[in-house]
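Notes from hallway chat w/ T.B., transcribed later so I don't forget. T.B. wanted the structure written out for a chain they're using in a teaching module, and asked if we could keep both sequence and structure tokens in one place. Agreed to drop them here.
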Amino acid sequence: MKTIFHSLILFSFILIFAACEKEIKFNNKLIAPKLVINSFVSADSLFEATIALSKAVPGVEKPFEWIDNATVNLYANGEKVEELKAIEINYAEDDDNYYWDDNSNTRPKTKYLSINTKAEAGKTYKLEVIHPEHGTAYGETTLPQPIEIISLKSEKTLMNYEWGGKDNQLIVKMKFKDTPNEENYYRLTFTRMYGSSETYKYDETEKDTSQFTIYISTRKNGTNLNSSDPIFSNDEDANDFLFGSPGNYYNLFTDDLIDGKEYEISFIAFNKFVDEYSLDTMYNFLEAPGEFCKIDVKLSSLTREAFLYIKSSHAQDWYGEDFFSEPVQAFSNIENGIGIFAGYSSSVKSLTIGNYPIDTIRYELNEFDYYY
């Protein structure tokens, strides 16, 4: 009886597991490559796009497959205005150190360019990509109007830190007025050109500036703006407190706090460490003969698509290898495909502290530009 009982139990288990088996047919359409469109356009500029195929399985090493045989049509306010031309891209040998491995195929071989059409603020554009094997994909975006920078002003301060160090700082304040009763998205960047005579030990009473050499360094500041303004606040979750936050890397902000109002943003455009133990203390910050600082501030009005794409793609990069975070999906506005078609309009205003150029002063590019 015991043997029969054990046999019945074993037979029951076999029936249960046999009943749970189900053959699932693999749907290869789920991993079929899709058209990937990448196109950012600025007002008053030609349209440009690169097109590739998506990788079937994320994380699997596979070269990009760039598309050079697509038909790319551009529409403005619903009417076709131009078919973009496919142009082969020729890279200089030292074009970009990031692309050091030519075998990786990480950079496009072809770009699609408009010849006659420049983007205009206020118009709605559609980019349509037609491929003989991969169908049709498209995206739409409306370029916003640029927002004027009302004023720029600066002030010099000496920052004393708790640990004893000091910084000479150049603070820039930019004022603008938000357009009321609409959702607006912004990005703030600036380019700084700085002329320093710090390598020359001079007498403050010296009137002959012909002996002076001003060393010029230039830097474009597009990320990590040094500002404590609440308008740049970043949404963080509980995990960010423990494992860090991607922050507001690209200086993005909305008009949620300032709808329709004038607003002044302050940021540090330049700081220079003060060495109290050297002869050159830098206390006379931007006051030596010929020293100057020129700031070009750019306020960009982004489309909603551009804002969401930039923000999400940076978050995807930040959290990509974080075991404790959920994956972040980069924003896409491409129908029947993947990628982004978005744009922006910008206004620029300049501010110069000091006199530049001065005929009696010699100017040279700074060999150690990275450190300024």
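Follow-up for T.B.: Residues 199-204, 278-283 have pLDDT under 50 and may be disordered. Might be a good example for the class.
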